[in-house]
Amino acid sequence: MTVRGGRRGAWRVRGGAVPGGEVPGGEVPGGGVRSGAVLAATSLAAFTATLDNTVVAVALRDVQDDLGAGVTGLQGVVTAYTVALAALLLTGGALADVFGRRRIFLAGLAVFGGASVGCATTGTIGHLLAWRVLQGIGAALVLPGGLALLAGAYPDPARRARAVGVWAATGGLALVAGPVVGGLLVAAYGWRAVFWVNVPLALAVAVVAVRADVPPQSHERRLDVPGSALTAVVLGATTYAVVLAGRDGLGRPVVLALATAVVALVLLVLVERRAADPVLPLPLLRERAFLGSCAGAFAASLAVFLLLVFLSLFLQLVQARDALSSGLLLLPLTVGLVVTAPVAARWSARRGPGAPVVLGLLLTGGALLGLGQVLTAHAPGLLLGVALGVAGVGVGLTTAPVVAASLEAVATGRSGLAAAGVNVARELGGVVAVAGLGALAVSRLGAGLTRTLVGLGVHDTRPVVDALLGARTGEATGLLLGDLGLERALQSRDVLLASAETSFTASTRVALSGGGLALLAVALLCAGLLRPAPATAPGVSLRTGARGRAGDRPPPRS
Fold first, then answer.
1. What does 6-41 look like in DSSP terms, one character per residue?
2. What number does CATH give the domain 29-223?
3. With bands split at pLDDT 50, 70 and 90, how would you rate the model's confidence at 248?
4. Could you tell me the fold of the domain covering 288-533?
5. Phi and psi of 69, rounded to 5°?
6. C-alpha span between 293 and 403 (Å, rounded)
7. Gap between the Cα atoms of 166 and 320, Å rounded
8. pTM of structure
9. Quick one: which of 11, 30, 67 has its CA closest to 277?
10. In contact, 387 and 330? CB cutoff 8 Å
């Protein structure tokens, strides 16, 4: 094993984990649960926390009926969780490194489970939003803490790569399965069931985590409070700005959020340059493997969310499929991901992450770009299934190696940071897919509807377009009646529906094509970033930024 870095705070470790050493926060080994049980528990925790990104979407109509929520409130049910999770992931990773991965993992489970109970029992939309924020905070502790716990349970690099493959496949499965699972729960037990189901899962995971026999972390650290706070502001404000821009367009709130993010980022750089134990070590941002893993995670998440959101809506709105048949048609994406991820993990362990990540991004980008070119309102299911299968294989090839690469880029004592970095990239990828490319698609859809309404003789098109985009068909019909009269309004109905289908198909093609081009560009980027580094290259100290040479410091005693 080669330890890289020449000072006490050296952070890069090549060739495997470093067991033993001092125990931060008084963490002690558990009661002897085998590593396989730790893998099952952390994978289930990742599945549950990731599932809440998408499972709520199918319950929104029932939430609206029960709590009387408006459109803004319903959007907040989704974005409150996403913003809180993205904002605090790096802080959660830092807490796991400082106070112990098991302790933070269990704390996250407690917060997540308790907030789920609050969501399930609330009677107002305001309280539901508050509980969703707490859920996001809990998930921000669970995801990096769980992956750090898993890394500690598998000190051997080859076995760890295989375990990470299973963990990554489970998290990816949660994204794809969210709408299906949510639909089944809502149909059987109502919208509150999507939150109640988290409670027994969190309890089961906690029991295993308490008894898990995980090697202690290798060195003591201190919490960088100013850096953690500024990191949360940067990530939270950026995520919020992208969500607002996708929903409302560029306006004053978006500008204020972006300005807040920029100011906080400048302050963060100044603070982290002087911090003894920075939450975001600036030398890490020059580490090719870490940057490549984050870029790959961002691109894979962007692709998954694009397919889940846009293609799912296309199947239901344009091809008039019900929720069940749409979910079944998306199954090739799930199967390809789950089957390929463990294979990619073994490939990455033997040959490095570069080849599987680049190939996976090329396959997924090609599938998105191909769909964007050939998609029509009458596209056969076989064509869609093949494209989704190819995309699933590509995402599976990417998901596990980027996680393994991020863990290998830092020392065992900073596995929480590595896990948090990849999960932040994933969250941002999903936000950009839904809000960023979503804004582009909605803009094109609105333009198409406007042209049709002008051709029909509607004088004030904006209120009608806004009503149609908001699915307020009754309001749109009333506006048309007032402008065109009964006979012409009825005649215009079929024309508008056909126009909406054509415009939505064109918008979906634009979003898929844009996503495909983005993935191909990231593939080229990762080809350079994930090249194997020379074995004798100098490392960087996370504490001081000083350069050192391999072998300057002997490995810690186990």
1. SSTTB-EEESS----S--GGG----S-B-HHHHHHH
2. 1.20.1250.20
3. low
4. Growth Hormone; Chain: A; (1.20.1250)
5. -80, 145
6. 7
7. 35
8. 0.72
9. 11
10. no
